Structure formats: structure tokens, C-alpha cells
Amino acid sequence: MRDPLDVIIIGGGTAGLSALREVKKRTEHFALINDGPWGTICARVGCMPSKALIAAANAFDGRRKLEAFGISGADGLCVDVPAVLRRVRALRDDFVADTLEVTDGLGERAISGRARLLGPDCVSVDGKDHRARRIIIATGSTPIVPKPWLPLGDRLLTTDTLFEQQTLPNRIAVIGQGALGVELAQALRRVGLDIVALGDSQTVAGLTDPEVNALALRLLRRELPIHLGDKAELTSAGAEVRVRGGRTEVVVDRVLVALGRRPNVEGLGLDALGVELDPNGAPKVDAQTMQVDGLPVFVAGDARASGIQHEASDDGHIAGMNATAQSIECFQRRTPLTIVFSEPNIAMVGKRFAELDVSQVLIGEVRFEDQGRARIAQCNSGVLRVYAGRYSGLVLGAELCAPAGEHLAHLLALAIERGLTVSELLRTPLYHPVFEEGLRTALHQLSAQLPASKDPDLAHCAK
User: Fold this and answer.
1) Contact 232, 247 (CB under 8 A)
2) In the 8-state DSSP scheme, what is residue 292?
3) Which CATH architecture has domain 337-447?
4) Helices 210-221 and 179-190: crossing angle, nearest 10°?
5) What backbone torsions phi and psi does residue 332 show, to the nearest 5 degrees?
6) pTM for the predicted model, two decimal places
7) 3-class state of residue 425 by DSSP
8) Homologous superfamily of 5-142+262-323
9) pLDDT digits over 136-170, tens only?
């Protein structure tokens, strides 16, 4: 490899591979440095194996509805947890193999080892220095585990270790009720394990709308105990773990720690950049350019705590474009979209409730208890709340806990991305009967509050 290279990418995860795709289009003089297993967090320990577990859990949980459909014999069904985990790992390995295809054939340009910055144009790997005109940092993240808990050893599980288990014990506490904690607590309960969930916030899955949060919590508590509002304390109880949170105290076999992930920046040498670092040791990054303080250095993905796969991929795309451009370009980011794959789905689109000035917005709501398609499918629980500008009628955002919520969320994200008003979105065709008709109910409620409330749902013909 020539010296200096055009670009060095540190990290072979989602953001790093997205950056690589752009860099490869524009130069052959690059290196990709990766420490640890190759393949993305999403494919190895995140999005994909967790969804494989959720799919198995929901398939087994479906037995509870069979009698309502006139189908008998559900009591004879059972779940084989080791078989479930084997399938999860088999699918995981396929997904990882797909990501590894991106790095196949890189030869000496793919370097395994731990990188350390010596400056904004130099990286050391195992004692060998590599220079580049520009550097992209996409080092991913690591599960957060409080230091006082570390002596509990393998009695603690994280997403990095959960899917490697050959089987699981019956009693598990899930600490943390963000998106991942909610998904996994419900899934593990649905495969028949004795689960207790704890979180130090009064909200679940990142929700900020109190109405949606209250319903989501009520529905989740139908399936498993959830204790909120107190920090958990863990102590050893022989081969078991004692878990305390406020007035709650349980003894379990394992604890799944789902407290989020921290950027992998420790030991990376970011102090060599000569810029201010935050308490986590990371520099400030321009989210529209991915650049660090005018330096030829870009940070993407979980290394800047983006936390969502498609946003990490966009980070890498922007970083790869700018690391190979003559001048730095600014890119618009997509409409914020978060989906939690619980049942019902939980989602937040565009502006969240907590970000809004309630005096400047209107809210349209639909409950799914009486929604036709939801009743037919035996999943008639949930709520969707849509936020619109009080005077403009622009669709601004939504929070929901609803059946088919992932599809509702994408429809709303498209509407917000296109700058649609309530009346314009009402003109979108919706087939009957579909879950999405619930959105129309919420939009009609909004429309009735707007000045143009008497406008027809259909546009007038052009004259």
C-alpha cells in the first residue's frame, strides 16, 4: 500500500462498511482496520439475531389466540429453547456471512488489529504506523455494564453473549427497559421463561407521550412483571443473583443487562486530535458532515452514539463521501424513525411529544380496540397519536403502540419527509380493511380541529 493512503477506515461494522462502499467508488488507496470479529453489530449481536428470537417467541405465543379462531389443541404445543437458540445462531451466521462479502478480496487493505490515533493523519496498528489524508472512525459500541456488577461474571448476559448460550435458565431479570430491554424481556417471556423486568425510568422503549407510554406499559404488564422508577442493585446469592429495585427484590439465575451501548473510543487515542472530548471521551461531530472540528477526521455510527442501524449506515455514507471529496458537503438527515419490535409494535416518528410546544400543535388519536382489521386478527389493542401544526396542518410526528405499528410508522415517516399536511395525507388511498385505516381515524380527528376542517378528503379536479 502506498504511503500516505487516501483514506483509513477504523471499524468494519455497519458505518464502516457503508463508508467503505463510498470510498471504493473513488479510490483504491485505502485501508480498513478492524479489531475483533469482522461483521456488523447489527448482524452479529443486534438487530438480526434479536428479531430471530422475537419471531420464534411470537410464533409460540400465537397459540394463545388459536381457540378464538376455532382451532383446538394449542395446549399440546411446547417450545424447545435450545432449538430456538440454534436457529437464531444459524440465521445470525448467514447474516454475518452476507456482511463479510463486502470485505472479501480486500487483501492487504483489510487489517486486523487495534488502532490508535497518533494524530489526524496517522494510525498505529500493533506498532506499525499508517498515514492517510483522511481518517474515518467507525469503531462501534460495547454493551454498558456497571463496574460493580462485573464480579458476577457469567451470571450476567448482554446482547454480545445472550445468543451464544446453548440454552437459558428459567429465571432471568432484564435490567433496562429501553427499546432492546422491552423487546427481549417480552420475547424471553413468550418462549416460556420466568422473566422480571426493571428500569430506572417511568417510561418504556423511549416513549415520551404519556398516553402512549401508559397503554404500552399496561399491555406489557399483562405478560410479565415490570418495575420502574428505581435503579437496580445486583448482589451475589451463591450461584444465583439477588436483584433489588425499590421495593422489588427477586432472586434469579441470570441477569440480562440492557442498559444501552457506549462508543468504543477508549484507548483509540482521540486526545491526539487536540480537540475537546465529552465525558465519554468522544469528540463533537457535525451530524450533517460527520467531520470533527474542521479536521480531516470523520466519526460515524455507534462511535458517535447514533444507535440506530439505518442512521449508522447514513453516517458511514456521508463520511465516505466527504473523506474522498475535494470539499466537504453537508447532507440532510432523514426523518427520525425508531421502531421497537414488541407486540404491539412501539414506534416514534418525526418530532416526539417531548420535543413539541403543546400550545402550537394539535393531536389526533385512534385506539385500536374497535378497529375492524385488528379485531379480525385478535390483536385489537393499542393507540396511535399523531401531532400536527396547529395553524399549518403539517404532520410533525407521532408516537404509537399499535398492531402493524412498523408499517404505520413508515407511512408517517414518508408523509413527514415529503412535508405533507393532514389534508394531503388524508388524500392517500388506504385499502379496506387494513390496519392503516386507523391512521385515517386519527387524521380526521386532526382535520376537525384545523381551520380547513370542511375541506373534502379528495382533491378538486384541475380546471
Assistant:
1) no
2) S
3) 2-Layer Sandwich (3.30)
4) 20
5) -70, 140
6) 0.94
7) helix
8) FAD/NAD(P)-binding domain (3.50.50.60)
9) 999 999 999 999 999 999 999 999 999 999 999 99
